[in-house]
Amino acid sequence: SCINMIRFILIQNRAGKTRLAKWYMQFDDDEKQKLIEEVHAVVTVRDAKHTNFVEFRNFKIVYRRYAGLYFCICVDVTDNNLAYLEAIHNFVEVLNEYFHNVCELDLVFNFYKVYTVVDEMFLAGEIRETSQTKVIQQLLMLQNLE
Amino acid sequence: MPTVSSRGDAMRGLAVFISDIRNCKSKEAESKRINKELANIRSKFKGDKTLDGYSKKKYVCKLLFIFLLGHDIDFGHMEAVNLLSSNKYTEKQIGYLFISVLVSSNSDLMKLIIQNIKNDISSPKPVHVNLALHCIANIGSVEMSEAFGQEVPKLLVSAHASASVKQSAALCLLRLIRTLPEAMTYAEWASRVIHLLNDQHMWLTAATSLIHTLSQLSPGDYKGCVSLAVSRLSRIVTSTYTDLQDYTYYFVPAPWLSVKLLRLLQCYPVPEEPAVRGRLVECLETILNKCQEPPKSKKVQHSNSKNAVLFEAINLIIHIDSLGLVLIPQPFWRQVDLMLPILLTSEFIIFLCVLSEPNLLVRACNQLGQFLQHRETNLRYLALESMCLLAGSEFSADAVKKHRETVINALKTERDVSVRQRAVDLLYAMCDKTNSEEIVAEMLAYLKKADYAIREEMVLKVAILSEKYASDYTWYVDTILKLIRVAGDYVSEEVWHRVIQIVINRDDAQGYAAKTVFENLQAPACHENMVKVGGYILGEFGNLIAGDERSSPLVQFNLLHSKFHLCTPSTRALLLSTYIKFINLFPEIKPTIQNVLQNNNQLRNADVELQQRALEYSQLSSITSQDVLATVLEEMPPFPERESSILAKLKKKKPASVQVSLVGCFIPSTESTEHANRPTYSTIACSFLLRFKLIHFKNLLIFADTIPTGSKGMRGLEFFLFMFKNSGVLFENALIQVGVKCEFKEQYGRVGLFFGNKTGNQLQNFAAAVSLAQTNPHNPQINVATQKEPPSQIDGGAQVQHFINLECISMFSGSPNLQLRYQHSSAPQQVTLKLPVIINKFMEGVDMNSGDFFSRWKQLGQPTQETQKIFQARHPIDTEAARTKLTGFGMCALTNVDPNPENLVGSGIIKTKTSQIGCLLRLEPNKQAKMYRLTVRSSVGEAAALICSMLE
Asked: What mean pLDDT is reported for chain B?
């Protein structure tokens, strides 16, 4: 009876610009904007010595910073922190390989492809595929389709 | 501008547009550029020329980009839907993306979209099927659940579908049943879905998540997954990192799948078959062993993923421990070893928590102990968090306590407030009688410099611990007053009310309290909360220290009155009441006080309350006789027993963290029993559980009913505690908390239920129904009446009440069910709970003298009316503890009845509408042999057996 799932995934830069927002729960647009701002306020004040987990409303944010980008996953408080922390890294490594040394601009110009990468790795608030080899194979196959 | 090497989908126009937007120097320039583009796209869409697929895709993609920048988009939806029927993947993909992000589930276009999805889902091209499945998973509306709930499972178990399609189908289905649980027929697919765990491919993370949810929704149908999940897990943990090539992450084989499998196993009781159980224990041991091996990589990814698995394994170990009771059907009896049977019938044995693995718990705890000093902050944080859970287990509590110093040190040195917060939680959880003074002292010391964010909660925790473990009331009073001194601003009303309640209820604390508050008030700057406590206590008990001339009545009064003008009106009002109490306690200073009351500052005070009090008190003191005054201003009577107000407050602040401590809380009472020696509920329950032995009687259903069947609701042990108490938390998950408070009188019961919404959103379609298990509908044993239905919505953070009236018609076993249904974020939820309505609640103690007792004892001399049990005492024989237990159970423990004072005798009547069942009990200890003989006689034989078994 107790649901454990990803509630949303956010990629934001230090200035608070959203580079990806993927919602797995129904929120209306105002609520989404509020969440985006709150998450930014919560994670940007933390330093590298802090944990990668932070309590957030009734949930928690598992996040990791890569250069100027914060990758944040919002999950339920009883869920496995380290599993999601590494899910973020796994995702980043896939992006890195797919975009050949990914940078923030890749996510801007190819936003519609980033959604495809996300859907390969996360779906319905759950982890879908974890093998980088499998994901990259699939993405390259899709890339070559007309 | 980065270029992406690709073929058909390089939308140059889109890249140019994005560059333009990025080059805009101002918001206005950006709006201008966007408006220009919108006008362009609108004209293209409206134009006479039919657009080709590529252009349509490009413009829809631009619209999506504009939307993501935060602008409203009010056209283009139809064009996006058109893209769905394209044969080209890239066009379809953009169409689906636009719809997933931008089209709301109540759109007029939904019928059309669903039609397109239907076509794609049955397409021979797997990539089209996947696009359709992802779209369903992303939107997941009720309409989609209805349309695809029967289709998607077919893809999931199809022999032809690729692993990729199956992954998507699994999670798509998960989304559909979260939206609409009845979208799928669970039993029909159970066997095939469970057997996905045997699949040789490693795509199973997704499938395991699905099975996890199905197991929560329909545990019976999916319980077969346990042994398959154990085998799968076993294969993963024993593999080397080269075995599972693609699924090895930094030398850790399939970490995410392992975590999911371990979580799935937490849905069910520990496996009953010894082989499966043994294999599971082996897996858990292997995971613990691997942490001791040298790391295969120095990368943090390696240790993180290894530890992700470890922490989940520890959760499972704790789950196994907390489960307590398992029902084992007869065919398996011979396979059971190492377990302590507690109840036996012709069909079932119930076994007690010897099922837990004390060895694993202690090992887990030692591992976490190492992490407490790890250089990674994450690990220190998680270790503190997990240890909090271990502190609640009988077997690991001591191992946790060994780390006290490290945890105290964390409180002092950690840089991250959330780590310090976990350290506070753990100290709170590990606190017991032996270490409470040190822990409370450390928390008080830390409080001075603690982060503002956690101070209030810490104050509550210090107050609760000092109350709970007070063996000495001077310590309790000192602690609370120190709390007010160092963190007065964070001491809520509940905390200072509580100290007053306790002092009033404890004769032996009053003199000391009066002396100590007096000393504290002498500090030049003292917190207003101190003035409140001081004022109240001196008003009641100032006379106890008035003999000393340093605290003579006048000195006390002057001291309090010196603070008066600095206080807020509510404190001044309290002090005025203290003053009138002083007039009664110390007639010699009456004129001084009357002067103050009659001063214009009071009589003409702008605050109506102060004015009225001053006037009334002044009149009261001048016109009434000393006798009347003494009656009106008599010492306050003791407060009735109630749940600690501070505990209630902490629960409200932090529902999850209090669960454990609720059980053992002491409640001040007017009884003369010594609180310090009084066993807490948890010790009663545990000693009572551990003493359970083989008993022959048919009526085990009370226990059988509480056997957990995989739901995360009330577990066996927790439910047992309700045999002794009438209020507490009945159920709690991430969304909802169900509290209960019952009252019983004769055959009537009134059950108050409190449903608290823990989320920020409204819970919808809320319904609560009570049903009686296994009773004959024509001849019910309990009548249930609900005054009115609970509201159908509960707002975020709100709590609603619901009352049920019961009447016990005849002797019953088991407990009524309470079924809750509600929707959260459009996902329906269902929980079935047992109401703590157990037969002993209808028992009332009957006091009688020795002659009456033994004459009734003899009347009930038929062999069928008696149940006797002789058993070994597992704890030192303690008649007082047994007496408390008996009273908690509902019987009256009789004194001066049995010629041997070591013996305990009790009597009670179970009151039902149709009959009254008298029950007499005699417990004879033999201290030399450390044995007890328990005899219960009752007019109804079954009742005697039932009570005998419950109390042994």
From this structure: 82
Nearest CA to B362 out of B253, B447, B288, B457 is that of: B288
pTM of the model: 0.70
Quick check: B367 and B296 in contact, CB under 8 A? no
Q: Are residues B798 and B844 in the same domain?
A: no
pLDDT per position as a tens digit, A60-82: 999 999 999 999 999 999 999 99
Ligand-binding annotation for B58, yes or no, is yes
- Establish if B137 belongs to a structural domain: no
Domain end, chosen from B789, B813, B837, is at B837
- A46 inside 8 A of chain B by CB: yes
**What DSSP string describes B183-240?**
GS-HHHHHHHHHGGGG-SSS-HHHHHHHHHHHHHH-HHHHTTHHHHHHHHHHHHHTS-
Identify the closest residue of chain A to B710 by CA–CA distance: A1
Q: Are residues B314 and B249 in the same domain?
A: yes
> Which secondary structure element, helix H or strand E, spans residue A40, and what is its range?
helix A29-44
ipTM: 0.98
CATH number of A6-145: 3.30.450.60
pLDDT at B357: 62
Q: Would the CB atoms of B205 and A81 count as touching at under 8 Å?
A: no
Residues 154-213 of B with CB under 8 A from A: 164, 167-168, 171-172, 174-175, 178, 202-203, 205-206, 209, 213
Same domain, B856 and B916: yes
In DSSP terms, B252 is beta-bridged to B249
How far does the CA of residue B263 sit from the closest CA of chain A (Å)?
9
Q: Which of B64, B83, B171 to mutate to test the interface with A (most CBs of A within 10 A)?
A: B171
Same domain, B859 and B786: no
Q: Does B418 touch chain A (CB under 8 A)?
A: yes
Window 111-130 of A, Cβ < 8 Å to B = 111-113, 115-116, 119, 123-130
| Structural domain span for residue B326 | 223-336
